[in-house]
């Protein structure tokens, strides 16, 4: 199986590949559970489709001509963010192999934008970043579906946070699999929608005549990107002939 690895990206724009991504993507489905889907349209499934990056992925796939299915655990949130696509409601962290087969049934490409920043009452970072990847690889075994993994720049096994460590372990599991994968590692992503990390940055930027460290223990400068800047890279990853970069 061919594999591609697109690592951390900055401001490189790959918009010239948008049209080709939709027109040249080969019609391979991940399994036979594709009844009711038109054979002449490519289908993309976005795991975590109503999140900050997931919603941008949904919009980009639609922009380049894909039928898009979103997967997430909250029906109410899914409908509030993106009402006009099909949703398959599933807690990915707890999903079995059979659950995942049904969730991604009929997909030509799968974008994994599911994730959690930290453990909590509803979130388990190891379960969503690692265990789910293992089960997804089993669910897709033997197919030709491309998996686009949305990771994060700077992830390492020895990172200071479990978010980065679990992301690194999940990436390693995907790269060791026999799947056709692309790994995207964007820097800190900002968008109109506000979540915990971006809300904190916005609040700190709005404080007049005040300077304080949002990441006081960080040894690296934080680089930010707008979510719409990531969309061309996602489109490029759909292109079968796009190599590492």
Description:
- The protein is of the alpha/beta class.
- The protein has one domain: NAD(P)-binding Rossmann-like Domain (Rossmann fold).
- Strands 1-7-6-5-2-3-4 form a 7-stranded parallel β-sheet, with helices on both faces. It has a two-stranded parallel sheet with strand order 8-9.
- Helix 4 crosses helix 5.
- The longest helix has 16 residues.
Percentage of residues assigned to helices: 25-40%
Side-by-side strand order of the widest sheet? 1-7-6-5-2-3-4
- In the CATH hierarchy, the architecture is 3-Layer(aba) Sandwich
- Tally of distinct domains: 1
| Sheet with the most strands, sense and barrel status | 7 strands, parallel
- Strand-and-helix sequence, N→C? EHEHEHEHEHEHEEHEH
CATH superfamily (homologous) name: NAD(P)-binding Rossmann-like Domain
Number of helices: 8
The radius of gyration computed from the alpha-carbon positions, rounded to a whole number of angstroms, is 18 Å
Distance from first to last alpha carbon: 19 Å
Question: How much of the polypeptide forms β-strand, as a percent range?
Answer: 15-25%
- pLDDT < 50 stretches: 6-29, 32-38
